[in-house]
Design goal:
The complex is a heterodimer.
Chain A: E1 11-16, H1 21-25, E2 33-39, E3 46-50, E4 54-58, H2 60-63, E5 67-71
Antiparallel strand pairs in A: 1-2, 1-5, 2-3, 3-4
Chain B: E1 5-6, H1 8-13, E2 17-22, H2 28-35, E3 40-45, E4 51-59, E5 62-68, H3 80-89, E6 95-101, H4 105-116, E7 122-127, H5 129-134, E8 137-139, H6 141-148, E9 152-154, H7 163-175, H8 195-209, E10 210-212, H9 219-226, H10 230-282, E11 293-294, H11 300-309, E12 315-316, H12 324-333, H13 338-367, H14 370-376, H15 378-383, H16 390-397, H17 401-407, H18 414-427, H19 431-442, H20 446-470, E13 479-482, H21 490-524, H22 527-532, H23 535-544, H24 552-557, H25 576-588, H26 593-603, H27 605-633
Parallel strand pairs in B: 1-3, 2-5, 2-6, 6-7, 7-9
Antiparallel strand pairs in B: 3-4, 4-5, 8-10, 11-12
Helix pairs in contact in B: 2-21, 4-8, 10-11, 10-12, 10-13, 10-19, 12-21, 13-19, 13-21, 16-17, 17-26, 18-20, 19-20, 19-25, 20-25, 25-27, 26-27
Classes of the chains: A mainly beta, B alpha/beta.
Chain lengths: 74, 634
């Protein structure tokens, strides 16, 4: 399932990322845990909380290329 | 922008370098302000748009040079900034101060580990430790020191906490640079860490040193989060932008008052008196000299009048016969005299607004608000053909188009760069121009200013859509980190403000003086009058645009500097409609000559010429349409 289609709430683990070095630098890699903080209408970005520590916004087109799986909150 | 270009060799030559490094948004520049004196040099790294700042940093008896290296996420040279950061680490620095964000330790540790690989003496500033505590993140500093093999100091740079301790630890490290771990074989000092491993090591260290509690978010964090929600984020954004306009317009006007009293009441009458006296003594031999001059020999009274009605417009027209002495006197102290407008326009008009703009935008920038705007409006910006991150460049262009266009190099595709350049050239006025427009429109009614802002937004949409259609290529989607919202640190805030004003003065001084000189000569010698009397000019300026003939001077001076397309209009008696048309023309009209240079350099002469021709045509066409519609309505 891709991040853009993944729904509004819940925690996710990233399973695949497109080859964009900025994503890697910001810590969005395979295995990174994220929660969706906000979504925006009209094809806006997805605002992520990464590892519960910081926020990164990724545009729709990138979000659609990021694969995620749902994880159960511990 | 700054033309001070440093070569690699020059950087290598700097003795006793200490580097300040870290992720973006960790507060490095606050450390820089706290550690160095007020004199700082901001430079462009050779062949790049990456800017770094250097300043004197005395420790004990030794003078060090502290270099604020651009913030990067890693040292893998995938971007310009990262490449520059890497080259700095290879330039034989004495030590590195690595600033890491305690509230975002894992990712920051990764960079620290990468830096550690270079085996340069390092101290680590565990900054934003108050934010970390607020978020329930407890860090075992002693353990972290062991893991990193470097001293770690908890700091809250915005409040100046921990800075002294950091310097003390740095001093110790500099004295005994051999301080290394005993060879545990596990920590960063011992083994080389490659990029994949640096993530793994960072995660492991993070697990060992951090204990996390559940806490409730404090007000500023909730505010920061709320600002990013569509509601109340969008209403807040509208309020913030309205406040920005308010601060610039009214703050600028407030600052103008004492300056106008100074220039109009003291400086200009002084020069007028001196020159009239010289001319009367040397040239006139008893006959009366007459020239066109503004009516404000009444000194401070004018200042107070400005206080009351916000403008001065009375002009005393004295016929002059056109003899050489009179022309010269006119050029020097006449209506557009060199010694009149250089004070009136540069000191009393442009400077106050430049200051009020930078005061407001620097605050927004340092508080971490601008990335929030990018996120909120990414959807709309995408529809317009650019991405939300471009909004930051647009806001910077409100300062000056030149660094904004250069800065748009960080935009990832050529299409986006060109679109940004087009949007900036057509619809984003620079700060000096905003000031001049605010003075012109504000003297009439605040409604006119609001109308002007709405019109600028409308043109922004139109130009974006048109440019998106005309310029081929792709635009990359938004990827942006949103930092914590925080109250700016006063010291680094004022420091940045001072540096920005210095830059403005340095870069704008010559073109402004050139424009003023041109205005003085053209007006003083009567060339303007001659031009204004040409039937073609009358057709365009008076007929189509409905402006007084003298307004032609605006169109000529506007080529040199943007605000000079507005400043001369302050001297004319204009109607509401004329003022608005003037605003429209000025907004769309050519960016200044420096922008032409940058456009040529970045995109080639063809693109620059298209933009220049386009802006002239658009300005005259749209300005005329607004005038004609206005005439019909009124």
């Amino acid at each position: 399932m891709n991040l853009y289609a993944a729904g509004k709430s819940g925690a996710f683990r990233i399973t695949s990322v497109p080859k964009i070095s900025l994503l890697e630098g910001m810590g969005l890699r395979r295995g990174t845990n994220v929660t969706v903080q906000n979504r925006y209408i009209f094809g806006g970005p997805v605002l992520l909380r990464v590892e519960g520590a910081y926020s990164v916004a990724v545009g729709k087109d990138v979000a659609m290329q990021i694969g995620v799986e749902r994880v159960n909150p511990q | 922008m700054s033309c001070h270009v440093s070569e690699d060799a020059a950087i290598l030559e700097i003795k006793n370098k200490i580097l300040l490094m870290g992720n973006p948004n960790v507060g490095k520049s606050i450390f820089f302000s706290e550690l160095t004196g007020i004199r700082a040099l901001s430079s462009n790294y050779a062949g790049t748009t990456v800017t770094f700042t250097e300043g004197r940093f005395p420790i004990g008896d030794t003078d060090y040079t502290l270099i604020d290296v651009p913030g990067t996420y890693s040292l893998a040279p995938t971007s310009e900034a990262e490449a520059v950061a890497t080259r700095f680490t290879q330039s034989n620095p004495e030590a590195i101060i690595c600033v890491i964000d305690a509230s975002n330790l894992e990712r920051n540790l990764r960079l620290a580990l990468e830096i550690k690989r270079y085996k340069i003496p390092m101290v680590v500033a565990l900054n934003l430790s108050d934010v970390a505590l607020r978020h329930g993140i407890n860090i075992n500093v002693e353990l972290l020191e062991k893991e990193l093999g470097a001293p770690v100091v908890k700091t809250v740079a915005v409040k100046g906490q921990g800075i002294d301790e950091l310097v003390k630890r740095l001093e110790a490290v500099l004295k005994s640079p051999a301080e290394k771990c005993s060879g545990c074989g596990k920590c960063a000092t011992c083994g080389d860490v490659d990029s994949v491993d640096s993530w793994k090591s960072a995660k492991e260290i993070f697990r060992r040193v951090v204990k996390k509690d559940d806490v409730n978010l404090k007000f500023i964090d909730r505010l920061g989060d709320n600002m990013m929600k569509p509601f109340p984020g969008v209403p807040i954004a509208i309020v913030v932008m309205a406040a920005l306009v308010g601060v610039v317009v009214y703050g600028g006007r407030l600052l103008r008052m004492p300056l106008i009293m100074l220039t109009d009441g003291l400086i200009i009458p002084f020069f007028r008196g001196v020159f009239e006296w010289i001319f009367a003594a040397v040239v006139a031999d008893g006959t009366t000299l007459s020239y066109r001059r503004l009516y404000y020999d009444d000194g401070f009274y004018t200042g107070f009048r400005t206080l009351i009605d916000g403008s001065f417009q009375s002009v005393e027209y004295v016929a002059y016969s056109g003899g050489f002495a009179e022309i010269l006197l006119n050029v020097l102290v006449g209506e557009y005299g060199l010694f009149v407008i250089s004070f009136q326009w540069i000191i009393a008009l442009i400077l106050p607004y430049v200051f009020s703009f930078y005061a407001a935008i620097t605050f927004l920038e340092d508080s971490g608000y601008l990335p929030r705007l990018s996120v909120l409006f990414d959807n709309i910006m995408r529809k317009l053909g650019v991405q939300g991150g471009s909004l930051i460049h647009v806001f910077l262009a409100l300062g000056c188009a030149v660094p904004a266009i250069l800065g748009s190099r960080t935009a990832t595709t050529q299409k986006e760069k060109k679109m940004l350049a087009a949007i900036i050239c057509f619809t984003i006025p620079c700060v000096a121009q905003v000031g001049a427009l605010a003075a012109l429109l504000g003297a009439f009614s605040w409604r006119l200013s609001v109308l002007m802002v709405l019109f600028a937004i409308f043109m922004f949409v139109v130009v974006s859509l048109v440019a998106g259609k005309l310029i081929k290529g792709e635009v990359d989607p938004l990827i942006i980190e949103v930092p914590n919202l925080l109250m700016p640190n006063p010291k680094s805030y004022f420091r940045k403000l001072v540096i920005r004003m210095k830059h403005f003065l340095k870069d704008a001084e010559l073109p402004m003086l050139a424009a003023v000189f041109l205005a003085a000569v053209l007006a003083g010698t009567g060339v303007i009058q001659l031009l204004a009397n040409q039937p073609q000019v009358q057709l365009v300026v008076s007929g189509w645009l409905g402006m007084p003939e003298e307004a032609v001077v605006s169109l000529i001076l506007g080529i040199v500097r943007r605000e000079m397309s507005v400043a001369p209009l302050l001297l004319l008696d204009l109607t509401y409609l004329q003022v608005f048309v003037a605003g429209v023309v000025s907004l769309l009209y050519l960016p200044c000559l420096s922008v032409f240079g940058v456009l040529t350099k970045e995109f080639g002469i063809k693109f620059a010429l298209i933009i220049f021709a386009g802006t002239i045509v658009a300005a005259i066409f749209v300005g005329g349409v607004v005038n004609q519609i206005g005439q019909l309505l009124m």
